[in-house]
Design a protein that fits this description.
Elements lengths: L1 E5 L4 H12 L3 E8 L17 H14 L3 E5 L1 H17 L6 H20 L4 E3 L4 E4 L2 E4 L8 H4 L4 H5 L1 E2 L7 H10 L21 H9 L4 E5 L5 E5 L26 E6 L4 E5 L6 E11 L9 E6 L6 E11 L2 E12 L7 E6 L8 E12 L3
């Protein structure tokens, strides 16, 4: 097969490309330039898409003996990922930009160009597995990225390759060393790639501006503080609330509600975060077939953690395909804008991705 290998400049994508070559495929490497003003160097494990990353990817391609190109997707990335990220926070949501990047850049814009150029598949360094066209968790639970890939539909997955999902990360680094890849010990990227400082609140504030509002105590309705914008808060947040001391019950306070229209941020106890049901929109069923009734599953609502047994029922949300997820046990910190990813409930197939949707609303536990 002709395979386009997306090479970020890190160890994972380098080894993924190497494995595609070793499997006998005709491989071409490509690095995506996603920043309109890339820096020369990365700052430790923060950020990506620097000129250093592009050079690292090129050196890896040279070692593998494959053609290598840099493709400019900066404008598309800004429009489909960064601008959407900012708008989502302004609307009181907590988005995951990796999902948008996978959905709209890597496996849409890039995959479409790859197909137009005659490539049969797109290989990436994601930690996930594809078996008989089904998306599954990676062998390495700590590195598993099936959550941020669950947004891909059946057709996109049919043209994808995840060559390293069957191997733990330490072994990937050892393999890179054996192959003579200089990125073998390069630090992993953390945080949000387009915010290299790691200061999300400052990044958003510079783009959204000041939109004053109030922090309100849920149990009493008392105003506790003023704030400069709802973009500085997310459901479940405990620190940086601008309030003094605990609540009336003597316990810590958490963000339990965000109203972007009034600018009101509501805080309450940890128990006020308990959610019994989730309403999610833009449902994608990985098999390509919508179930005709309720499905027993395990739902994950954050990239790392936030799992619970549940029953998912296909419904219509905002005029499109959605799902109602009734939890068998309550979850905390469920934020609008995040993905609700469904995995198979049975133990033998618990790593199998069933589908994905975006959290639009929640139902709190009644006490």
């Amino acid at each position: 097969m002709r395979v386009l290998a997306a090479m970020s400049g890190g160890v994972d994508s380098a080894v993924a490309a190497a494995r595609a070559v070793e499997a006998g495929h005709d491989v071409v490497g490509v690095h995506l330039a996603l920043s309109t003003a890339p820096g020369a160097l990365r700052t430790g494990s923060r950020g990506c898409c620097s000129r250093e990353d592009a050079d690292d990817a090129r050196r890896a391609a040279d070692v593998l003996g494959i053609p290598f190109y840099v493709w400019d997707f900066a404008d598309r990335f800004k429009e489909d990922v960064i601008d959407e990220f900012v708008a989502s926070y302004a609307a009181g949501e907590t988005p995951n930009p990796c999902l948008s990047c996978n959905e709209k850049i890597k496996f849409s814009a890039l995959a479409e160009r790859a197909e137009a150029l005659g490539f049969d598949a797109l290989a990436t360094g994601h930690y996930a597995r594809l078996e008989n066209g089904e998306l599954r968790r990676a062998v390495d639970d700590d590195k598993d990225q099936s959550y941020v890939l669950a947004v891909l539909d059946h057709e996109q997955l049919s043209r994808a390759m995840f060559p390293i999902g069957d191997t733990p990360k330490p072994q990937i680094r050892e393999e890179a060393e054996r192959r003579g890849l200089s990125v073998a010990n390069k630090p992993d990227s953390h945080d949000i790639c387009f915010i290299p400082t790691g200061d999300t609140r400052a990044f958003l504030g510079a783009r959204i501006g000041i939109r004053p509002g109030a922090v309100i105590e849920k149990s009493t309705g008392e105003k506790l503080a003023d704030h400069d914008g709802v973009h500085g808060f997310t459901i479940g947040q405990r620190k940086g609330l601008g309030i003094e001391g605990p609540g009336p019950d003597g316990a810590p306070r958490y963000v339990t509600g965000i109203d972007p229209e009034t600018g009101t941020v509501t805080v309450g106890s940890a128990a006020d975060l308990d959610v019994s049901s989730i309403i999610a929109a833009r449902a994608i069923w990985t098999s390509g077939v919508t179930p005709d009734g309720p499905v027993e599953c395990t739902v994950q609502v954050r990239a790392h953690g936030g799992l619970a047994p549940a029953v998912a029922t296909p419904i219509e949300v905002d005029g499109g395909p959605g799902v109602r997820i009734d939890l068998r046990s309550p979850l905390r910190g469920v934020a609008r804008g995040q993905a609700a990813v469904l995995y198979a409930a049975d133990e033998a197939n618990g790593d199998l991705v069933l589908g994905c949707s975006r959290i639009a609303d929640t139902v709190q536990v009644t006490r």
